[in-house]
Amino acid sequence: MRSFVHTASPSRVLFGAGTVRQVAAEADRLGASRVLLLSSPPLEKYAARLRDVLGGLLVAEFDGAAMHTPVEVTERALDVVRDHRVDCLVAIGGGSTTGLAKALAVRTDLPQVIVPTTYAGSEVTPVLGETEDGRKVTRSSPAILPETVVYDVDLTLGLPATMSITSGVNALAHAVEALYSPDADPVTDAMALEAVAAIARSLPAVHDDPSDAEARAELLKAAWLAGMCLGAVGMGLHHKLCHTLGGTFGLPHAETHTVVLPHAMAYNAPAAADAMERIARALGVPDAPTGVFDLVRRVGGPTSLRDLGMAEGDLDRAAELAASQPYPNPRELSRDGIADLLRDAWEGRRPT
Ligand code: NAD
């Protein structure tokens, strides 16, 4: 018998095409009358759509969301919240804009409506990672979890192909690590396996034709399922490594996940044989770590940390940091083992 504890996230999710039109009704449902719209400059086209949709509910805008949620950006946005007596946050964008909404919500308890435009999955987790003085610190709280998520497939059609691929692999990483998490339960297993299979099908289709709405919908649904896994169970070595590489060495989030995932899987494989077998079946390949590496290569994703700009001289320190704090992981963490993993990822070797 398998004992387990499952905690479901109480968020409301709308999924479809053209659903952005429902954002005003969703804000209204949360009792909003003074909305702050959060975005970033590359998303101006979508912010304009929301401006129209929100009409008189909109009282202020802030388009300065930045990667890894710097605290100084949050403080500037907090001034806008106070100056305009905002009573609801609407955020459009990827994990960075969602992170800003969460950082404001945890400080003000304001309700959030998130409109995701990438596959990061942050919109369905109660987790916030913030950076201050070059360190990324993560916390979790019910006030961080967005009340409402509006997935609109149309808004993902323009996500550049490279970002679509790396963000899709970021989602795959949530599902993979959920399957060997000590907190895994039958619900997260089912969501994670469906996400892995859907990503394996849709990622090549999106790569071949980024305007394929059906493939985009399948990938976005998988990103939601994978995000639910991320929100429900603890992650392991892969996420900790990417957190260190992003927070301390400034490497880009989704790209780093894409390079590291096959290597973190290869490291954990000897201690997570059952999960790896299930992942391989869902991917439709004989071996999970090499299957993920080959999928990334097939869709033209990055395969080496060197190409992402990581200095060779930083590898030792990254291994030291990643091994310095104990956390649950299928295979025991050794500094030398992690150093070898990072070396393989830096050089872009296919795992064996
Ligand atoms: P991002 O939000 O930084 O977006 C990357 C770039 O793509 C940005 O310039 C953005 O403006 C642009 N962009 C986004 N959507 C677009 C679209 N549809 N069309 C054109 N351009 C678009 O990247 P991300 O990978 O989505 O998020 C990364 C951040 O999210 C990191 O800070 C990471 O730590 C955080 N994150 C947090 C969680 C969590 O649960 N707390 C989960 C995943 C990611």
TrEMBL record:
Q: Give UniProt keywords alphabetically.
A: Iron, Metal-binding, NAD, Oxidoreductase
In the UniProt record, does the keyword NAD occur?
Answer: yes
Q: Where is the Fe-containing alcohol dehydrogenase-like C-terminal domain?
A: 165-346
Q: Which residues form the Alcohol dehydrogenase iron-type/glycerol dehydrogenase GldA domain?
A: 10-152
Q: Does the keyword Phosphoprotein apply?
A: no
Cofactor needs: Fe(3+)
Q: Which family does it belong to?
A: Belongs to the iron-containing alcohol dehydrogenase family.
Q: What is this protein called?
A: Maleylacetate reductase and hydroxyquinol 1,2-dioxygenase domain-containing protein
* Full-protein interval shown: 1 to 352 of 647
